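Reviewers of the previous submission asked for a worked example of the structure-prediction workflow described in the proposal, so we include one complete record here. The input consisted solely of the amino acid sequence. No template or homolog information was supplied to the procedure at any stage.
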Amino acid sequence: MSQADNQANNQANSPPDRSSGFQVAAVQMVSTPVLEENFNTARRLVAEAAGQGAQLVLLPEYWPIMGMHETDKLTCAEALGQGPIQNLMAQLAEQHGIWLIGGTLPMIANEAGKVLNTTLVYGPQGQRVSRYDKIHLFSFTKGAESYDEARTIVYGDDVVSFQAPFGKVGLSVCYDLRFPELYRALGDCTLIVVPAAFTYTTGNAHWETLLRARAIENQCYVLAAAQGGIHPNGRRTWGHSMLIDPWGEVKSVLAEGEGLVSGSIDPHFLKGVRESLPALLHRKL
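From that input alone, the workflow returned the following structure tokens.
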């Protein structure tokens, strides 16, 4: 392991210093087909993040279920405001007094045999404050490896952000990361979040590069929470959950396995980056 990896892993395991800014954490999981197993993992890791001082916690994409078959998520799809997945997220936010960005969960769609892949955000009183339905749906084929989310997921339509105590937070999910026009449409954000379940193949090639690019070009923090490991269905996800600052520096990273990355959102640092290199003000198109 390189010196940079060691430093990043040490940062991931160290309690954050609240005096340096608003504390955030990303949860990395290796979700299974069993909801209750994933619920227990989420409870444990969110509690650990809150215990280390995190005021905002991000869960990964598909955290409640990674089924044996792509249609398994249809069996646990929920209507808005109803169901055990939403109940748990609201409870965790209220119990720990945190902002909880709930990765994604399957939500009932108007199209038979399909769901929406939805991010729900909860405030410190357990209230739902925002909803984003994933706009870009992943498709990839290489040899025996093949995915097509559109077979079971309906495309979302709306670009969504919400206001947190430290500034505006832009919502995106996994494959969205490849479409920079989405992040321009979000406008001036302090933080962009990316819950994801990147495949090992595409993650190894592009994950960090794309995340750092989104941070650099939008001059904001990027917090990514990933699935990271070998799942019971045989799929291997890339992991490497990370926090990146507005200069594009990776502040904390976790390669594979369950765990946390954490760090702080420092508005003064963000302001300094934008003042020294006012690229956002220089846009012409």
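The longest strand covers residues 115-122. We consider this example representative of the routine output the project will generate in years two and three.
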